[in-house]
Amino acid sequence: MVLSSADLLAALKRLRDEGRTTNAALGRLLDLPSSRIAEIYDGKRKVSVDEAKLIVEEFGLNGSPPPPRPVDDDDTAEIIALDLSLSMGPGTFIEDFVDGEPVRISLGFIQAITRTPTDRLRLVKGIGDSMEPTLRTGDQVLVDINERQLSRINGIYWIDYLGMHGIKRLRAAGQGRLHIGSDNPLVPDFEVDAADVRIEGRVIWFAREL
């Protein structure tokens, strides 16, 4: 797959906006100073053929996933654990998010779950029974905060609905409407204006104590 200069620049800007790369990281990849990277983003410097190949391979822009980086058994990554509990019931009012102690998790394990950079992941606790049996009170859920749009049909999301935060299933319900659902059949679903819902991220994994 060959990308035009314009398409490659658009892809780089998208990767930066999604938090998948930074000027410093791209500079390390291409062995260029930050001033030259800034020129690339400003359209003042074109990417060479060899540089384009490195970018395409690193970020999987050829339609294939990027080659996995060798991971040592001892490699770990820090995931920010938020000092809050997200309701899996009627909702929790939350004014401020407080970062807890970072949790160290096997990097190889994280890479097996998602390609999202670890700094765009958050670990939070769920409370309530509206998402049972899928999720239970006390489950630790991993949230991809890059996914702030409805990207999955019937996906599970961390949402803010009129100031109340919770973990719910979402799906489109017609023009400008969202269906907010629960997995517990005893808890009613409802529809709301999409403008009243802010998606904070998508739940991509959970852990449960035995």
Shape: globular
**Total number of β-strand segments?**
10
Radius of gyration: 20 Å
Helical content stands at 10-25%
State mean pLDDT (0 to 100 scale): 81
Structure notes:
With 210 residues, this protein is an alpha+beta fold. Helix content is 22%, strand content 31%. The protein has 5 helices and 10 strands. Strands 1, 2, 3, 4, 5, 6, 7, 8, 9 and 10 form a 10-stranded mixed β-sheet that branches. Strand 7 and strand 8 form a beta hairpin. Helix 2 crosses helix 3. The longest helix is centred in the first third of the chain and has 13 residues. The protein is globular and about 60 Å long. The termini are far apart.
Descriptors for this entry?
single chain, 210 residues, alpha+beta, 10-stranded mixed β-sheet
Short structural description:
With 210 residues, this protein is α+β, with helices and mostly antiparallel strands. The protein is 22% helix and 31% strand.
Blueprint of the fold:
Blueprint: H1 5-17, H2 23-30, H3 34-41, H4 49-59, E1 76-87, E2 92-93, E3 103-106, H5 107-113, E4 121-127, E5 140-144, E6 155-161, E7 164-172, E8 177-181, E9 190-193, E10 197-207
Parallel strand pairs: 1-4
Antiparallel strand pairs: 1-3, 2-7, 4-5, 5-10, 6-7, 6-10, 7-8, 8-9
Helix pairs in contact: 2-3
